[in-house]
C-alpha cells in the first residue's frame, strides 16, 4: 500500500504515462508541476491558454516545450472548454485548473455538451502525508459540497474509497467525523454517521469499513480511543476522514496544510475523469502531487 508521496510518485511512474490537459496554463507554479510530471515520466501535457505567456514562463523556468502541445486561446472561458474537451474526446486523461477562477473552470467541467458530467456526485478528496502517521490520510469534502445530506455523504465516501484504492488500499477505514463519539439526536452529523456505519455493515456501502460517529482524536489516535473505551476496527486507524460539512473540512485541510510539516495533493472525483483543482496559494509540490494522484485514479478508471 502507498503510504507517502514518494511512493505515490514512484507508483505513478510505473503505470502507462498519462496526459493532463491544463486550462489557462499561463501560471508558473502549474507549469513547474507539469514540467516535473513530464520529466519524471508521469504525464505529458496539453497546454491551453495564452501561448505567448506560456512560452515566456516556460523559458523562465527552463521548461522544454518541444514535445508539448500548446493550444493558443486567449479567452479564459473558451480555454477552459477546450481543455475539458481534450479529456471528453479522449486526447487527455485528466484536466487541471490553471490561471482561472474555480467557478468558470467547473462550468466547463460540468458543461452538458463537452463536459465530464456523470450521474454521480462530484466531491473533493485531499490526501495528506503527515510525519507522525504511517499511512496517508484522506480528508473529504473540503471544497465542493457545502452541507451534504446522508445520500450525498454515501457518494462522497464512495469517491474517497476510489482514491484510496488507487493508492493500493483494498479496504480503507472510514471515520465519519463529529464533535462527539456518541449518537445525539440534537447533532445531525452523528445520526448520519450512525446510518453510514449501519449501511456499511449491511453491505449497502461496499469496499470499505465505516464506523462512527468518531471525534477526530478517536479516529486518529488508538491511545485516545482506548482511553475512552472505544472498541472499533476504525478508531485510531482511520484512512479516510469524512467531514460533516465544508466548514469543518476546509478548516481541517488548511490547518494540516499550514500548521504541520505535511505534504498534500487533491482532486475532484465523480466526473468522467479526474479533475485537478488546486488553489493559487498551493505550492508547485502540491500541484505535482495532485497530478500524480490524478494519474493513479485515471489508471483505475480506464
List the helices and strands and how they pair.
Blueprint (H helix, E strand, L loop, with lengths): L4 H10 L3 E6 L4 H12 L3 E7 L1 H10 L8 E4 L3 H13 L5 E4 L4 H8 L13 E7 L7 E4 L9 H17 L6 E4 L11 H14 L7 E2 L5 H5 L1 H6 L12 E3 L3 H14 L3 E7 L5 E2 L7 H18 L1
Parallel strand pairs: 1-2, 1-4, 2-3, 4-11, 6-9, 7-8, 7-9
Antiparallel strand pairs: 5-6, 5-10
Structure, explained:
Its EC number is 2.3.1.19. Belongs to the phosphate acetyltransferase and butyryltransferase family. It holds the Pfam family PTA_PTB. One of its GO terms (molecular function) is phosphate butyryltransferase activity. It is a single chain. By secondary structure, the protein is an alpha/beta fold. 42% of the residues lie in helices and 17% in strands. It has 11 helices and 11 strands. It has helices at residues 5-14, 28-39, 51-60, 76-88, 102-109, 150-166, 188-201, 216-220, 222-227, 246-259, 284-301, and strands at residues 18-23, 43-49, 69-72, 94-97, 123-129, 137-140, 173-176, 209-210, 240-242, 263-269, 275-276. Strands 8-7-9-6-5-10 form a 6-stranded mixed beta sheet, sandwiched between helices. A 5-stranded parallel beta sheet has the order 3-2-1-4-11, with helices on both faces.
Amino acid at each position: 500500500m502507498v503510504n507517502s508521496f514518494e511512493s505515490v510518485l514512484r507508483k505513478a511512474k510505473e503505470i502507462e504515462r498519462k496526459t493532463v490537459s491544463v486550462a489557462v496554463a499561463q501560471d508558473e507554479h502549474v507549469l513547474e508541476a507539469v514540467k516535473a510530471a513530464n520529466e519524471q515520466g508521469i504525464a505529458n501535457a496539453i497546454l491551453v491558454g495564452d501561448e505567448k505567456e506560456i512560452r515566456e514562463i516556460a523559458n523562465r523556468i527552463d521548461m522544454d516545450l518541444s514535445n508539448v502541445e500548446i493550444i493558443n486561446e486567449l479567452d479564459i472561458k473558451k480555454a477552459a472548454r477546450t481543455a475539458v474537451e481534450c479529456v471528453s474526446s479522449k486526447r487527455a486523461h485528466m484536466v487541471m485548473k490553471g490561471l482561472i477562477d474555480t467557478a468558470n473552470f467547473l462550468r466547463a467541467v460540468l458543461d452538458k455538451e463537452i463536459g465530464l458530467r456523470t450521474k454521480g456526485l462530484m466531491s473533493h478528496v485531499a490526501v495528506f502525508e503527515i510525519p507522525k502517521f504511517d499511512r496517508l490520510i484522506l480528508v473529504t469534502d473540503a471544497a465542493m459540497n457545502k452541507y451534504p445530506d446522508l445520500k450525498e455523504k454515501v457518494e462522497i465516501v464512495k469517491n474517497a474509497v476510489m482514491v484510496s484504492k488507487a493508492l493500493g488500499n483494498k479496504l480503507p477505514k472510514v471515520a465519519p467525523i463529529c464533535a462527539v463519539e456518541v449518537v445525539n439526536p440534537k447533532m445531525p452529523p452523528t445520526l448520519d454517521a450512525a446510518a453510514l456505519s449501519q449501511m456499511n455493515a449491511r453491505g449497502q456501502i461496499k469496499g470499505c469499513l465505516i464506523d462512527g460517529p468518531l471525534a477526530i482524536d478517536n479516529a486518529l489516535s488508538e491511545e485516545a480511543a482506548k482511553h475512552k473505551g472505544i472498541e472499533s476496527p476504525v478508531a485510531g486507524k482511520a484512512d479516510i476522514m469524512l467531514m460533516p460539512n465544508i466548514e469543518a473540512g476546509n478548516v481541517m485541510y488548511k490547518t494540516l496544510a499550514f500548521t504541520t510539516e505535511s505534504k498534500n495533493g487533491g482532486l475532484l472525483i465523480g466526473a468522467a475523469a479526474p479533475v485537478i483543482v488546486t488553489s493559487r496559494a498551493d505550492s508547485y509540490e502540491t500541484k505535482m502531487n495532485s497530478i500524480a494522484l490524478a494519474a493513479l485514479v485515471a489508471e483505475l478508471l480506464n
